[in-house]
Structures are given as C-alpha cells and as structure tokens.
Amino acid sequence: MFAPFRTFARKLRRFGRARRGVTALEFALVLPPFLLLTVGLAEVAMIGLAQTSLDFAVTETARQIRTGEAQNNGWSASEIENRICDKFDDFLVVDCASNISIDVRHFSSFVDASNNLAAPIDNGQFDPSGLGYAPGVASDIVVVRAYYRWDVLTPMFERVFGNLSNGDRILVSTMMFRTEPYG
Predict the structure, then answer these.
(1) Sheet containing 169-178: order of strands
(2) 3-class secondary structure for the chain?
(3) Most buried residue, 94, 102, 123, 155, by most Cβ within 10 Å?
C-alpha cells in the first residue's frame, strides 16, 4: 500500500532537485503578464493619440465657427465634419467619415450651456438622434462637440477601455466659447 506512495515521493523529490528547464519555466511564468502589460500599454497609447488628435481637430475647426467664417460662408454640419476629419486624419489612418458625429449648439449663457451637455450614451448605446447643428450668430455662446467611435483594437481589453455595450469607445472633444463680434 505504501510502495506507490514511496515511488511517487521519490519522483517528486527528484523533480524538485532537477535544474534543467528552470529558465524555460520562469520565462513561461513571466511572459503572459509581460505581454498583457505591453499590449495594454499600446492600446492606451493609441486611445490617447486618437483623443489628442480629435481635440486638435475640434480646436482648429471650432476656431472657424468662433471667428464667424463658418456662419458667413454657410457651412453645413457635413462641412464641419469634413473639416474635423481632415485634421483628425493628419495623425491617424482612420475611417473618420463613418465614425464621427458632431453637435454644435448656441446658448444664451454659459450656465445654460453647461446644464445642457448630457452625453448621448443611453444604456450602453450611442444615440446621435439628439445632436444638431446651430452655430449661432456673432457674440453667441457656442458649444462644439465631436464624438468619435473608436474600435478597441484588442478584444480582451474591450471591457476595460470600452464605454459602449459592444466594446467600442466613444471619444469626446468639447469646445465652449463666445463667438467674436464678426460682421
């Protein structure tokens, strides 16, 4: 009855004293967390680059609304989207036209503007139906918001970085300003 146990114990001691393959075992233990950290860092860097690029594009395009160029030239919402996409695509190769949504509104006061800026995400779904384009006139308070649907590149990080139920992330860039007294 004890013979199989002694044989097993002897093999276990011999396995514990063996030094061949220790490096491979240590590498196998360290590799998964290292790869997870590296891929996660790359994902965070891509999202950060996309957010910074979107902020730049919205800032540059909102300047044309702030100075009255967009209003004087009769630019439509699609024209503003195209201008944002032109700037956004400078740094990243993305499908901007099908993933961007804009919301441009004018308000009578900064308090009204800040009270009416709810995110268009409902039950984990992006709902662009409430977005509009009304850039206002000279000396109006205007809020320009751009929403970009970013596909999280690594499926295992969709639950971590995604803010929609399908694992995508909505990047948001907002500019609030009073338009210049253009004429």
Answers:
(1) 100-107, 141-150, 169-178
(2) CCHHHHHHHHHHHHHHHCCCCHHHHHHHHHHHHHHHHHHHHHHHHHHHHHHHHHHHHHHHHHHHHHCCHHHHCCCCHHHHHHHHHHHHCCCCCCCHHHHEEEEEEEECCHHHHHHCCCCCEECCEECHHHCCECCCCCCCEEEEEEEEEECCCCHHHHHHHCCCCCCCEEEEEEEEEECCCCC
(3) 102
